[in-house]
Design brief:
This protein is of the alpha+beta class. The chain contains 4 helices and 3 strands.
């Protein structure tokens, strides 16, 4: 950044740190068409992409994948093996790779600090 631009920003009361935050937040919004954990382009189109999303979101290993009815559509039901041998079953939207259960979705969003 030139000294002239920095001086103008100081006169406006905008520091370079704030400017950088604005630039970064703009780039994050521009990537909203990507999965928040894996970065894969949305919509997800393969079962493998959804498995990767689940393993990333829940920090576990998918051991079983099924397709289940979700209203007029379908979703993936995944069984994950977590730390300590715990098993968790989650339903993920087939195109977004995010949980279909609002409570689980909120838990994931909090974990991702969204």
């Amino acid at each position: 950044m030139s000294s002239y631009a920095a001086a103008r920003l100081r006169r406006l009361g905008i520091g370079t740190g704030i400017l950088m935050m604005l630039i970064v937040s703009g780039s994050v919004r521009a990537e909203s068409n990507a999965h928040p954990c894996t970065g894969a382009a949305l919509p997800l189109t393969t079962e493998r992409q959804v498995v990767q999303a689940a393993e990333c979101l829940f920090d576990g290993r998918v051991v079983k994948v099924d397709r289940v009815s979700a209203g007029n559509d379908w979703a993936y039901r995944l069984r994950l093996l977590l730390d300590g041998g715990r098993v968790r079953t989650v339903d993920l939207n087939r195109t977004s790779g995010m949980p279909t259960n609002p409570v689980v979705l909120e838990e994931v969003n909090e974990t991702l600090n969204r």
